Amino acid sequence: MRFERSHTRKAVALTVASSLVLLASACGGGDDGGSGDSGSSGGALEGRGPITFATGKDTSGNLTNQVAAWNSQHPDEKVTVAELPESADQQRAQMISNAQNKSDAFSVLNLDVVWTAEFAANRWVTQLPEDQFPDLGKLLPSTLDTAKYRDKLYAVPVTSDGGLLYYRKDLLAKAGVKPPTTWAEMVTDCQKVKALPEAKSIGCYAGQFEKYEGLTVNFSEAVNGAGGVVVGKDGKPNVDTPEALAGLTALTEGFKTGFIPKAAITYQEEPGRRAFQEGNLLFHRNWPYVYALAGKTDGSSKIAGKFAVAPLPGLKGPGVSTLGGHNYAISEFAKNKATAADFIKFMSSEERQRANIEKTSQAPTWASLYDDAALNKQFPYLAPLKASIEGAQSRPKVVKYGDVTTAIQEAAYGALTGTTTPKDALAGLQTKLSQLITQ
Amino acid sequence: MSTSAPVAERPTPETTKRPKRRSSFNEGTGRLAALLLSPTMIVLILVVGLPILAALRESLYQSGQRIDESGFVIQGSEFVGLDNFTAIFSGETGDRFWNAFYNTTFFTVACVVLETVLGVAMALVMHKAFKGRAIVRASILVPWAIPTVVSALLWKWIFQADGIANDLLGTQILWSTEGWQSVLSVIIADTWKTAPFIGLLVLAGLQTIPDEVYEAAKVDGARVWSTFVHITMPLVKPALLVAVLFRILDTLRIFDLPFVLVGPNKESVETLSILAYLEANQTRYGPAAAYATLLFIYVAVVAYVFVKLLGADVFGDAIQRKPKKNGRSGRRRGKQEAPAAALAGLTASSGGGGGGA
Distance (Å, rounded) from C-alpha A414 to C-alpha A425? Predict the structure, then answer.
């Protein structure tokens, strides 16, 4: 009995002690960030060996081929793919928690273009010495810009994306008009097409106006296309301007006059694409991926062979697309950074980018690929896409991008649904952005 | 010790020893019980206690919110006391918080009322003996078996601008826009999904009611309605209250449905857990923990009030234990007073039940 008692007592003491230790270590864990101020930014990329590549779920199915090509050439520096969820939010969350634990589980990170600033400012990714990446000059300059934070390089753009104007070439031809280059032309063209008996009830135009990242993209395009800016080149918000107002008003007027169908306020990429494929839209702003799907002749698209693409129209001149795409960066806490840098060079090389677009139709960042005759034959939208990307603007490069995009969506959605006037929405947005960006 | 005791003195010490031995026996059993329960308690401390403490601690800190001259985030976390909490209640954030608080409460009341009514009706149908009963039971349970996010996507599809809901209604309601329609879509989807849960628990309750009671009511000439009100409801009440309590606690932290079906940052359907998620997603873990703590307190208070007011027999043992000593019932009540540790209470009270029997 005595033995048992002392035994339990010991057990109790042990339990209490170990929980205290655990508690202390759990508490201590939070404080680590305070002292862990590693000043290795821009340091040498050293170490060779196996690495991991953290990327969102590969929906194209081609990533395995790309990585296999590397692995067969580098048997001692094998790359393992760490596949993250398909949702961008969850990818970012996993990469952040990995960085906050200073874990070396992820070596190369596949970052959405808008995350660069946040990851760089938190020192979660390593600054890259530009002289070690000799091919940067061969990439489209606008895409390279997305990989920089405060003029320093933190990543290498591997895929890009730009908005395109999809239009019904059959209907435009019948009405005898050319594809529009300005917003006003688009409005008059639509009226002419609607005069045709078979197109009486067609919707004129839709982009992505649901309250999500797509709205930030479409709002920025409207503002930029009218000569305004959301955040200026100096990094300061400057959205309460007549130009921005003209851009936003074009959208709100579009909703008011029925030029943009009411349902478009609920459109993300996919509902918009379906509406276009069903033949319910004359003009549609979307990404290049729609081209293949809308051209399918298996009956899923009613407009196969009846549509074409053009660069986005602006308010009074050519439009300005918002840049999409992905950049590859090296985790600050990774081992074998030299291998990681080589892998990024490999993946962004002309050869790999060509192999990738051939299989997946993802827009490359390598400029000369857009002028390749064979590729242009396979992807007839490459020329307008190049124009779109070359003239494209990045979304604000700010550390608190999540807050900034939420503020933009809030303002744009309010104006589009008529709860605020465009003027008030922009003034409010300017105040909000000033608070968020100066901090 | 007992072996060294002289044999001749046995009769006298036995009277003094017996209670001692019994007490030591009881003490020993208690220890044994404690020992056997300790793995559970350790697991509970690890997976429930420590995270709660860590979250409470986190809610008093802020980190990574400022940027230095060269554009880097200043590392380290800073103790800010209750600032995270006071910030929630001030200015624009305050409006947003109270809106989310109202939405959460409204969803809870509306959904749980609807689900209870439908769930009881489903249970009554499932309880009736008729041909194909098994199929009806199984099909009623299908929505419950579908993960919430999947059902949210499913309903999102139905409520699209060109979706089947609008086709059937012959209108073009834009369900995911701000306003009553998005609220309604969430309530419909939630009711569809979780009414079967209440149905299932009530069905279990119905099956414990002996047929004789109904036969007696029939003999006495009771009508269907009064049979339902005076016999079925009182007898099924314990099961129903537990089901409703679970649903209330569940709906208070509703997240997936409004988030996926309608979308984030929509004022009409923003709930407290969405606010906590959005803050955490912006790596503001301190304020996120503060929101989560407030939600935790709210859930605890609601559960407490519910148990107190309706006397919900959460642990399902009041009937057998009513004629017990004061001390014990007092202790039991004490356990119910901490609904946050409902699980711990559950294991503890069932452990106590085993000891008493």
Answer: 7
